[in-house]
Design goal:
Elements (H helix, E strand, L loop, with lengths): L3 E6 L5 H10 L3 E7 L9 H8 L7 E3 L7 E3 H9 L5 E5 L5 H9 L2 E7 L2 H11 L11 H4 L4 H10 E4 L4 E4 L1 H13 L3 E5 H4 L8 H15 L6 H8 L20 H11 L3 H5 L16
Parallel strand pairs: 1-5, 1-6, 2-5, 6-9
Antiparallel strand pairs: 3-4, 7-8
Helix pairs in contact: 3-4, 5-7, 7-12, 10-11
Length: about 280
């Protein structure tokens, strides 16, 4: 394995599933990550002192769910500490600068996407889980009902307790859109990777795994063996289903989601249909 890999995704889109796949393909976990939490959350003051651009140098935007930037100099050093033959993960916004630094360091990038309705549904549980108290928005979100959280994640807003603005899902997805236009990144749909065990298709899963192996230029991979081992068994991905979100949204929220997301052509190009009043069913490749 003579390359390095960046596994990037929107939060709750199947990052752990693709990380597991990376290990099955022979990559080692580096323990590094790049996301909003690279600047905010645990040890925030220290992170800002070391990682933020401060008064000098270029700033590289990395935050998806909320704005966050790091120093270009720190970012170059950080990604270059990922050993050859290893991967690191992230929930990082696209920028030409970040893409350039990854290419310069010899990385390949896999960008994971999921039906945004599945993202919204999963986020509501993650926001209030025990152990996530470090998340700057945790205490504010824990006071909301599930429906209130769904509505907030959809539209976003200023969170006084955190002293920060949390972006609605449209704005956050738009920050990731550049990865889907990048010739240096392979876009992988969560729904296409879970296979029949996750409510998808084994044939589509096999084709998707083949595309990943080709993109990473790894010879001699037994895709059938990878299929058998891939689903389940990670810390946050234990039994994800592509249609688990169905029934989570009432008519009002379903219409609001359609209005927010229906006119994003790159999502339509990936097979996600939000036309109102469409049936609540997962997009499948």
């Amino acid at each position: 394995m003579n390359r390095r890999l960046f596994v990037n995704s929107f939060p709750k889109s199947g990052t752990n599933l693709v990380e597991k796949l990376s290990r099955l393909l022979g990559y080692r976990r580096s323990g590094r990550s790049l996301a909003f939490s690279s600047v905010h959350g645990r040890h925030e003051l220290l992170k800002r002192l070391i990682r933020a651009h401060g008064l000098w140098g270029a700033a590289v935007p990395i935050g998806l769910e909320a704005p966050a930037s790091v120093s270009a100099a720190w970012l170059r050093r950080y990604i270059n500490t990922v050993p050859v033959g290893s991967y690191f993960s992230g929930h990082a916004a696209w920028s030409g600068h970040l893409e350039y630094l990854l290419r310069e360091a010899g990385f390949k990038t896999i960008q994971v996407i999921r039906d945004p309705r599945g993202i919204l549904s999963s986020l509501t549980g993650y926001a209030v889980e025990e152990g996530n108290e470090w998340f700057p928005f945790h205490s504010a979100f824990a006071k909301l009902s599930r429906r209130e959280l769904l509505s907030f994640y959809l539209r976003g807003g200023y969170v006084a307790e955190a002293g920060m603005y949390y972006s609605g899902i449209r704005e956050a997805l738009e920050r990731a859109a550049g990865w889907h236009r990048s010739p240096g990144a392979l876009v992988v749909r969560f729904e296409d990777l879970v296979g029949q065990k996750g409510g998808g298709s084994d044939q589509v899963q096999r084709e998707t795994l083949g595309a990943i192996v080709d993109f990473l230029e790894i010879p001699g991979v037994d895709i059938s063996s990878i299929q058998q081992e891939l689903f389940g068994g990670t810390h946050t991905f234990r039994g994800g289903q592509v249609d688990r979100w169905v029934g989570d949204f009432d008519a009002e929220l379903t219409e609001a989601i359609a209005k927010e997301l229906a006119d994003l052509p790159w999502l339509r190009g990936l097979g996600y249909d939000f036309a109102w009043p469409a049936a609540q069913s997962p997009a499948k490749g």
